[in-house]
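Incident log entry.

Two folding requests arrived from the same account within the same minute. Monitoring flagged them as a possible duplicate submission, but the sequences differ. Recording both here for audit purposes.

Request one:
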Amino acid sequence: MAKLTKNQKNVLGKVDSASRYTLSQASQLVKEITTTKFDASVDLDIRLGVDPRKANQMVRGVVTLPHGTGKDKRVLVLCTPDKVEEAQGAGADYVGLDDYIEKIKGGWTDIDVIITMPSVMGKVGTLGRILGPRGLMPNPKSGTVTMDIANAVKEVKQGKIDFKVDKYGIVHSSVGKVSFDAEKIAENAREFLHTIVKLKPSAAKGAYIKSVYLSSTMSQGIQIDVKTIEE
């Protein structure tokens, strides 16, 4: 077993794995225990008391974080020629239709979000097998199939996140970067958690939020005291 460096020992001593912390405490701690040389993402892992295999217990939605994610999302807009200028003016990274559909069929998926319009969903639908597994398929529920292309692009650029519970009942999402102030990390995390609480399915029985952990890339998880989410 590799010997721990002095830095790693210091870090391990800061978080008590048996304790539960408030969001404010955890947001400060995650900054202190992250030793990566790059600006790591700060992530939330929320275990829910739902059975995602049942349609009436599926938890999915969108949230706009007050301080953004700290990550510049690459946006592709698939639209008709009359919407190209609107998409480019709103800050889309790539705009087009048939040329990009062919590019994606050839294996190109170097993007974070695809926004499109109802009239071209027939063409976009043919990409389901490629886009579906990567979470890139546009969806009216998440606001990525719309006639208001400009607003959709701006929302994504400002930090709007599309999320859904996985097959294990866990919602995982980035809520910022380690370089953020602890207060901003806490506010982003709180906004995300409040959104999850509002989406509680009526069919879910027992404890809805079972556990919440805050961590950064490569750091240990810090358990949040669920009772303090409203703090």
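Request two (distinct sequence, not a duplicate):
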Amino acid sequence: MENISQLIAKDLLKIKAVFFRPEEPFTWASGIKSPVYCDNRLTLTAPEVRNDVENALAETIRREYPDAEVLMGTSTAGIAHAAITGHIMGLPMGYVRSGNKDHGRQNQIEGRLEKGQKVVVVEDLISTGGSVIEVVNVLREAGAEVLGVVSIFTYGMQKGLDRLAAADVKNVSLTNFDIIAQVAADEKYIKPEDIARLIAFRNDPSDESWIGGNK
């Protein structure tokens, strides 16, 4: 029986929200060469996939964070997912800006949040963990009790795992890099021998020895 992680992996690959190209790596802004491109915003324009994702987020929050009182999306990618999932669950939602507004009330947290409320942060993608930890810190400083994070996809990079652990932040993702790589091979998006190259990239993105590894 197909589990949620495999279903979401298939969905993301089908709409190219996650796209593997080990033979023609993408270049990140940092200059690092990457065999994978990820844009989970594409889930919003694919209704069937969107339905799978939002229902899976709701199920995950009910299971992992049953005491959740408020959902807070990360800006900007997590906002729509927090809104839709909040609607499914009948929970209030808001979002956290990357910085304070420069006008009006100069809010960084948008939406009503009372001190002591139990919050789950909704994020689309976890890589090194820096941006979501900033969101958690803003919410904690505002007096919220952050139960943890729920995300669609995580690379599982060691730097991200270490950062989340150091900040005492729990994250539960619908699927992860290892599962998507295996599903991509099973579905013939990539060759089976590419899996080792992809995992080598994930384990150390700065080491480009995986490039051309099968030649």
